[in-house]
Design brief:
- The chain is of the alpha+beta class.
- It folds into two domains: about 1-215, Cytochrome Bc1 Complex, Chain A, domain 1, CATH 3.30.830; about 240-435, Metalloenzyme, LuxS/M16 peptidase-like (Cytochrome Bc1 Complex, Chain A, domain 1, 2-Layer Sandwich).
- Helix content is about 45%, strand content about 20%.
- It has helices at about 50-60, 70-80, 105-115, 120-140, 145-155, 170-175, 175-185, 205-215, 265-280, 285-290, 325-335, 345-360, 365-380, 385-390, 395-405, 425-435, and strands spanning about 1-5, 10-15, 20-25, 30-40, 85-90, 95-100, 195-200, 240-245, 250-260, 295-305, 310-320, 415-420.
- Strand 1 and strand 2 form a beta hairpin.
C-alpha cells in the first residue's frame, strides 16, 4: 500500500496492492460519503453492447451473494437515514452512499458487496430490460431532455458519444445475461476503480476495512482487458440542424459548440466563458433574453468535458412564435462575447465560479465525487487553492480568444423539439450567423 502526500485541502491518495485507489478527505461533521467510480461508461461500448454500462448499474441493485434481495441492499443504508444511489456516464459508472459517520463501515460493506458480488440473475436481467426501455420512453416524453439528447447526436455523429447512455431499445433487447457477466468481469476490477471517501472518519480504520473487504478481489489485468474507447476525430465543416416535430407547450432549443477536453489547460477558461454567457441570473443570456426581451423563463449554458473532446451547450424553452427571435438573440450574444468582455464581468465570473465551487465542496457527497473523478480520470488532484490561483490569472484576452475558437460557424449545432418549425427558415438563420462571422 502506497500513500501520496497531500496539502491540507487535497485528498490523500492511497493505492492498495490489488490496484484499488482510495481518495480520502477527512472533514468534521455528521456525515460520510462513499463514492466508488469504475472506469467504464457508454463510450466504451460498441453498437452491439450499447447501454451495457447502464444496464449493469441497474442490476447491481438487484442483489448480491450476501444480500440477495434489492430490499436487503437499500434497507442496509436507509434504515439509519442514509442514501444509496448510482449513475452511469459516458466514461465513468459510479456507486455512492451518504451515511452517518458511525455507519461508515456498513456503507463500505454495501458498496463493495455490490461491486464484487452481484448475482446478475437471469430473471432480474429480463425484468430490468423492460424497466430500462420504459426509462428510455419516459426520457423521450420530456422535450427538454429530448433536445439535449438530439444535441449529443449531432455533436458526435456515428460515435458512442452521440448515443443515449441507456442505449437503444434494439440494443437492449439483444444484450444477454452472458454479455453482462463478461462486461462485469472485464471492467469491474480494483485496478479500474477509485473509491473516494469524504467526512468524519478514522484513517486507519478506513484502510483496514478496505483491505479486509477487497483482499480477494481479482487484481489481474490480462490481455483481454482493453480499457480503451474510440477517440473522436470527426471534423465539422458547416452548421448542423436537427428538428423533432411534435406537439409541445413550448419549443425546446439546444445550441451546442465543440469545446475542450477535461485535461486541456483551458478548461477553467471555458468555465468562465460559460459563466459569463449563461450561468446564473446575472449572465448575459439571462439578462438579455429573459429580463430585457421576455423571450424565455429559463435559459442557461454549461460545459461537458470528456477525455479527448468537450462541448458548450445552451438550452432554453420558448413560446413557439418566439423561437426564431430567441435563436437569433442567442447567436447575437455568442457573437458579441468574442470581442467585448468587460473587466467587471470577468471578475464577477471568477467570484461566481470560485464561490459556487466552495459551496459545492462543503457537502461530503460532492467532495467525494470531485476527488474520485479527478483521481480516476486525471490521475491527479486539484486543491481549492490551486484552482483559485489558475482562475485568478485568467485574462479577458484568454476568454475572448477561446470564445473565437469555440464559437466558429462550422462548429454550430442546433437541436429543436417542437411543432411545425421550417427547416428552410432555420437554415437561413444559421447561415446568417455564418455570414456575420
Amino acid at each position: 500500500m502506497e500513500a501520496k502526500g497531500r496539502s491540507l485541502d487535497r485528498p490523500e491518495i492511497i493505492q492498495f496492492g490489488n490496484g484499488l485507489r482510495l481518495a480520502l478527505s477527512i472533514r468534521p461533521g455528521a456525515s460520510v460519503s462513499i463514492w466508488a467510480s469504475v472506469g467504464v461508461g457508454s463510450r466504451y461500448e460498441d453498437n452491439s453492447l450499447a447501454g451495457a454500462s447502464h444496464f449493469l448499474e441497474h442490476l447491481l441493485f438487484k442483489g448480491t451473494t450476501n444480500r440477495p434481495l434489492p430490499f436487503d441492499l437499500s434497507s442496509a443504508i436507509e434504515s439509519s437515514g442514509g442514501i444509496l444511489n448510482a449513475s452511469t456516464e459516458r466514461e465513468v459508472t459510479a456507486y455512492w452512499c451518504k451515511v452517518l459517520a458511525s455507519d461508515m463501515e456498513n456503507g463500505l460493506n454495501v458498496i463493495f458487496d455490490m461491486l464484487m458480488n452481484p448475482l446478475l440473475k437471469r430473471e432480474d436481467v429480463e425484468k430490468e430490460r423492460d424497466v430500462i426501455i420504459e426509462e428510455i420512453n419516459m426520457i423521450n416524453d420530456y422535450p427538454n431532455y429530448k433536445a439535449e439528447s438530439l444535441m449529443d447526436e449531432i455533436l458526435w455523429p456515428d460515435h458512442p458519444l452521440g448515443r443515449d447512455i441507456a442505449g437503444t431499445k434494439a440494443s437492449l433487447r439483444d444484450i444477454s445475461r452472458e454479455d453482462l457477466i463478461s462486461f462485469h468481469r472485464k471492467y469491474y476490477r480494483p485496478v479500474n476503480t477509485v473509491v473516494s471517501i469524504a467526512g468524519h472518519v478514522d484513517r486507519n480504520r478506513v484502510i483496514q476495512c478496505l483491505e479486509e473487504l477487497t483482499s480477494d478481489w481479482d487484481a489481474s489485468s490480462g490481455s483481454d482487458m482493453s480499457w480503451t474507447f474510440p477517440s473522436y476525430f470527426g471534423v465539422q465543416k458547416s452548421p448542423r440542424l436537427i428538428i423533432d416535430h411534435r406537439e409541445t407547450e413550448q419549443t425546446h432549443l439546444s445550441l451546442g459548440f465543440k469545446g475542450v477536453s477535461f485535461s486541456d489547460d483551458r478548461k477553467y477558461v471555458m468555465d468562465l466563458l460559460s459563466a459569463i454567457l449563461g450561468e446564473g441570473m446575472s449572465s448575459r443570456l439571462f439578462v438579455e433574453l429573459r429580463e430585457n426581451k421576455g423571450l424565455t423563463y429559463d435559459i442557461r449554458s454549461a460545459n461537458s468535458y470528456y477525455a479527448d473532446t468537450g462541448c458548450l451547450f445552451i438550452t432554453a424553452g420558448v413560446d413557439h412564435d418566439n423561437a426564431h427571435d430567441a435563436i437569433s438573440s442567442i447567436l447575437n450574444e455568442v457573437f458579441e462575447i468574442q470581442s467585448n468582455i468587460l473587466l467587471g464581468e470577468l471578475e464577477r465570473a471568477k467570484s461566481y465560479y470560485l464561490g459556487r465551487l466552495r459551496l459545492y465542496l462543503e457537502d461530503t457527497r460532492n467532495l467525494a465525487e470531485w476527488a474520485g473523478y479527478n483521481e480516476l480520470l486525471l490521475n491527479s488532484q486539484a486543491s481549492l487553492d490551486s484552482v483559485e490561483r489558475i482562475i485568478n490569472i485568467i485574462q479577458i484576452e484568454d476568454v475572448e480568444s477561446l470564445a473565437k475558437e469555440v464559437f466558429r460557424d462550422s462548429s454550430l449545432n442546433l437541436a429543436i423539439v417542437g411543432p411545425s418549425h421550417s427547416r428552410e427558415s432555420l437554415d437561413d438563420l444559421l447561415t446568417g450567423y455564418m455570414i456575420e462571422n
